[in-house]
Amino acid sequence: MPLHPFAYDPFQQRAIDAIDHGHSLFVAAPTGSGKTVLADYVIEQSLERRQRVVYTAPIKALSNQKFRDFTARHGEQVGLVTGDVTINRRAPLLIMTTEIYRNSLLEDAEPLSHAAWIIFDEIHYLDDPERGTVWEEALLFTPRQTNLLCLSATIPNVAELAHWIRTIHQRPIEVIEETQRPVPLTIFFQCQNKLLASPQELKRLGYEGRDALRPASHARHRHHSFVPANRLETLLRDVHGQQRLPCIFFTFGRRRTEELAWEISGFPLCTPEERAALHAMFQELCRQFGLGHDPSTSALAHLIERGVAYHHAGMLPTVKEVLERCFASRLLKIIVTTETFALGVNMPARSVILDTLKKRTGGGFELLRRREFLQMAGRAGRRGMDEEGFVYLRVNPAHVSHPEVLHLLQARPEPVHSRFNTTYATLLNLYRRHGPALVEIFPKTLYYFQTSGARRQEGLEAMRRKLRLLEVMGYVTSGALTRKGQFGAWIYGYELLLTELYARQRLTSLDPLSLAVLVAAIVYEPRPRDASPKSHRLIKPLARLCEEPLRRIHTEEARGRISPKAKAPVFHLTHALDAWMSNAPFERLARLCGADEGEIVRYFRMTIQLLRQLAENPAGDAALRAVADKAWRRINRGVIDAEAQLRLG
What distances in angstroms separate CA 434 from CA 427, 428, 578, one per listed residue? Predict the structure, then answer.
């Protein structure tokens, strides 16, 4: 059976020739152009030669999808490690989140040193403000003998990134860039409730020849005072009438996805035969995933039968899985979703709609980045399925100017910049190997490579200040890790507070519920409008437990001008976690904490991941390891059990 049933594009063939010659390579190409073909090829070649290959993905959902896809082809040769799931860890093809790969390199690189290839999917994540440092460290510490396949969306500084990799590893790496999509895109604009086919038409008829229209409250002239709303029916009639379904409808708020889906459900999208087939598929998938009695699916069933659904991070992972499978069948005509759906999940769509061109950020509303726009628009038109893809942009001329629209359509994608900001755990693991000389690694970073003068010095000083804090607080001494340092090196993201609590013997006195509640409070990030947590017998004593160690940490961080400062615990999930560990049904939990079901699953799984780090920490005492082990096992049941969900699939 051939690996792919189609002829390779020239850029794919060049990449395959490089792989055949054993060369590392960095491939940047538009979303939907077929970069995954190259990962498939590397994996097939490696397994045929009985070599090991590691595939990293930026999010667990994508790791899980790849595990299912590769298992369908390669069976027991595939393993998965994501922090809350470990399956077949010694498999020749190992799927990992990038964090877990980075952590594994720092803790014990030997098992991974025999890999012939490491595949970095979505490597433009180097630019992610919070997590980009993980990609940088993962590249930095990958063994030199392992070949790299770096897959990226279109970025303008691919050559620079490849030159950095060549420099730090003293290895050749080929650069292959593709700018053309195999399926061309046609872009339309909905503005003043008209459908317009070009930027010129948009300016003439949507903006009335101007660069921008003022909103009514600021209008100086009467003809500016009224901008007709972009009606959904106008848009749907065109998308449906022109046979441009299925469609991904992107918007930027969970509640907005639901509101739009219900509004769309009044429009006839499906034939009676399609409705019957979709109903049968949805019911069977709900049965397969144990969702037959789930309240959220009964509401979705009404939408599904009308050919529409919504999809966002607040939903149960199993429900999202069911919806993704329905959409992949092309029976589900429109899925209204947040932008995370654009990331890697292979969903076939003929059209994409962007509800708005601006999204809310910390400082108000900002225009989408060009890379974000390309990632979402690139989901339209799937290779082998569509001759053409269609993108509809809903434009409000009172909110976004015509030059801003042109910027999204024509500007170069933003370059990738280093976000290097080593965690304390990374420094501790490096200190174990290199002692104070670990600062000599800094000149190898992408941050160093892309900066000079004062900015470069500032980055080095930030690293040294963190190292000084670890010395002052007793994590390192005389070129070696102390007992505290050994404990902290095993915990990623929340290492200082947990280590300080452990060093003061405040963790060992906790029972499984108290430890789980504390860990959940450490990982939980409340949303800006969240109310204060409801009173619970555990909150005050656990908060008091953290006060003094947290004060000490914050004092030292302030002295060292280190930011962001260590996070304080937030106890919003306490009632829900208590109920869950007492075997309450999952349906009760959202009422106990105010979080969406998907958030509860996510944070409970993060809690499990951190509890497992405590349970497996070789520097921890046996009593704490035993309590942490009991705690995570009590949480890991039903919809929280990520491994069980994978096995259902």
Answer: 10, 10, 43
